[in-house]
C-alpha cells in the first residue's frame, strides 16, 4: 500500500484523519479505520510497515473496537486537521458577513475583514487575542497557537472546572461535570488570573523590588550614586 500524499491523510480511507490513533509502530490510522482494517483481517499489521497492531496470540481476546479505543489518540494531529478544516472554509467575514476575510483570530478561530478585525482588537473581551493575516497562517501554526480542543467532543475549551482543575468544552460541562459545584467561563478565569498577576507585580513594585531579581531598586540607585561619587573623586585626583 502506497504512503498517503498528505501527512494529514489516513492511508486506509485516504481522507483527513478523524480521531487519529497511534499504532505501536508510530504510524497513524483513523479510529474507524483501525476497526475496519482489523475486521477484514484480525492478524493484519500496520498497512504501512506490517508491524503487528496487537501482540501475536492476543487477537482472539481483543475485539477491534477495544483495540482502537485502547490506542492513544494523536491530539496534535487532530488539532492540525481541525485547523486545516477551519482554513479551508469560504473566506467570508464571520462578523459582518459582508466583506472578504483577510484575517483570523487564533483564539476564536473566526475569519474577519479588516474593519471587523480592528473592532475585535478594541473590544474588552477580545483585545488580548491574536489576530493575524490569513496569508501567513498555516494549519500547523493555527493548531499550535489556537484554543485547546476537547479530545472527546472536538469542541473548544470554553469552561473551567475548579473541582477538578480542568478546562472543559460545553459538552463535557453538560455531560460529565454537571454535578460539579464550581464551573466558570474560561475567559473569565484567564482575565482573573491576568489581573492577579498584575496586582502582584504592583505590590512588588511598591515594596521597591524588581520582580525579575528581587533586589531593591533603591539599593541599586544608592549603589550607582556611590560609584558615581567615587568616580568623580578619582577623576579629581592627579595621576601618579
From TrEMBL:
Bias (Basic residues): 222-232
Entry keywords, A to Z: Metal-binding, Zinc, Zinc-finger
Domain B box-type: 88-134, 145-178
Top-level division of the source organism's lineage: Eukaryota
Coiled coil regions in record: none
Extent of Low complexity compositional bias: 212-221
PANTHER family documented for this protein: BONUS, ISOFORM C-RELATED (PTHR25462), MEIOTIC P26, ISOFORM F (PTHR25462:SF296)
Protein name listed in UniProt: RING-type domain-containing protein
Amino acid at each position: 500500500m502506497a504512503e498517503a500524499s498528505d501527512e494529514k491523510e489516513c492511508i486506509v480511507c485516504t481522507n483527513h484523519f478523524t480521531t487519529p490513533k497511534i499504532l505501536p509502530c508510530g504510524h497513524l490510522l483513523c479510529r474507524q479505520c483501525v476497526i475496519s482494517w482489523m475486521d477484514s483481517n484480525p492478524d493484519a499489521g500496520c498497512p504501512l510497515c506490517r508491524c503487528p497492531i496487537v501482540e501475536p496470540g492476543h487477537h482472539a481476546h481483543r475485539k477491534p473496537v477495544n483495540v482502537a479505543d485502547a490506542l492513544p489518540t494523536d491530539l496534535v494531529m487532530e488539532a492540525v486537521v481541525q485547523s486545516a478544516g477551519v482554513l479551508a472554509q469560504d473566506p467570508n467575514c464571520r462578523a459582518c458577513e459582508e466583506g472578504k476575510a483577510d484575517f483570523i483570530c487564533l483564539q476564536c478561530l473566526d475569519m474577519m475583514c479588516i474593519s471587523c478585525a480592528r473592532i475585535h482588537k478594541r473590544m474588552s473581551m477580545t483585545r488580548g487575542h491574536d489576530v493575524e493575516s490569513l496569508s501567513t497562517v498555516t494549519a500547523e501554526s493555527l493548531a499550535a497557537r489556537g484554543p485547546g480542543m476537547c479530545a472527546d467532543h472536538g469542541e473548544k475549551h470554553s469552561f473551567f472546572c475548579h473541582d477538578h482543575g480542568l478546562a472543559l468544552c460545553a459538552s463535557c460541562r453538560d455531560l460529565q461535570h454537571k454535578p460539579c459545584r464550581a464551573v466558570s467561563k474560561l475567559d473569565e478565569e484567564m482575565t482573573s488570573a491576568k489581573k492577579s498577576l498584575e496586582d502582584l507585580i504592583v505590590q512588588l513594585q511598591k515594596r521597591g523590588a524588581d520582580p525579575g531579581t528581587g533586589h531593591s531598586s533603591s539599593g541599586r540607585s544608592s549603589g550607582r550614586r556611590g560609584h558615581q561619587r567615587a568616580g568623580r573623586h578619582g577623576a579629581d585626583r592627579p595621576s601618579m
